[in-house]
# Entry
Amino acid sequence: MRTIQMLFRLPGLVFLALATFGLAASQAHAQLTVDITKGFVEPLPVAISDFYSEDNEGAEVGSNLAQVISDNLENSGLFAPLDQRAFIQDPAALDAGPRFADWRLIDAQALVSGRVQMQSDGRMRVEFRLWDVLAEEQMQGLAYTTSPDNWRRIAHIISDEVYERLTGEEGYFDTRIVYVAESGPQDRRVKRLAIMDQDGANHRFLTDGSSLVLTPRFSPTSQEITFMSYAGDSPRVYLLNLNTGQQEVLGQFPGMTFSPRFSPDGNKVILSMAQGGNSDIYTMDLRTREMRQLTNHPSIDTSPSYAPDGEKIVFNSDRSGQQQLYVMNADGSSVERISYGDGRYATPVWSPRGDLIAFTRMSQGNFYVGVMRPDGSGERMISRGFLVEGPTWAPNGRVMAFFKQEPTDSTGRVSSKLVSVDVTGFNERELPTPMDASDPAWSPLLTQPGTP
# Structure
């Protein structure tokens, strides 16, 4: 038996993850995989049993874990969780091992099972196993010990393990989304900063709505957010620490500032700043607060976004006479235009995998969210709407979120919602928010294996 111990750091808590793999079966490569290279994927039938426990408190947690894992996998569009009412083997019997023939009878190809044990020190131990039903093999087995109130995080972490084991790509469920929550009539719109888990749970507001907020963006560590806020009529760039709640103004800039975003190493913020009626791109070193101008052109340069290796920057500019996308070196040299389609291109965001750039495009009265390669080739649209804006990537670069605004209704109301979609344009789904929502930003994975 092979045992791996890893420490993950959660805000205010360190918990132990103990990984236990089976014997010979676990050493073999998985035969069960989901091919996600195609534009459309037939969802894989997966059975997710309630996690077994010998006490009522643990049984309730076990049921909740199964539900969140099932919801996560279904929302990915790659898996089809089976109805538990069809299950032949109950959690207690499953605790001793699967009767694979019973699971094949209901067409399950993968099976997720587990156990919850409440310990005498007040902590909770959660074990889970992933089974290949057709090969009758255990594909994964892990155990976690943590406080009971972390059960939802454990469900997301297990979901990521299942997703990665079956697709070969990193999951994205143990993440959060920060966005602008909107309420009130159109002429007196209140815009507050809000944060939630990627599935809409644990929602909370970060600002009180007394000042307009725009363009929140996560730091690479997920622990800080940079955003714009208008205190009075003065726009400022702020830095908010999610652990401490401390908020600071990054600087008093001489001109209007837009679209702040972190560099991949988290040491700089890149933004556009208007001086003398012209907007160029600047960086601020967060250690020295030194500003550096990267572009100097008599046009509007804005919406900069770093490549994941920090070597390149994509931005939009009207220097060709119409808003298009450009890529330049991180020092501002070698500017090259990469978009040549009709209409206007805006808000480019480099994929965490580096292979694609997401953008919005306005053409012939329509709004689109699209992607293209960093050299401008392979452009394709993945969503269209009355107004679609603000693409942001999940950390695996497979899924993105953006917001959709609907036309004004008969009462004069405009509604706006967050949606997620696979990079192929498949599986567009609404992300639940308690009120209108815009301008989402997706965090990196909160739990990063190997992080001390």
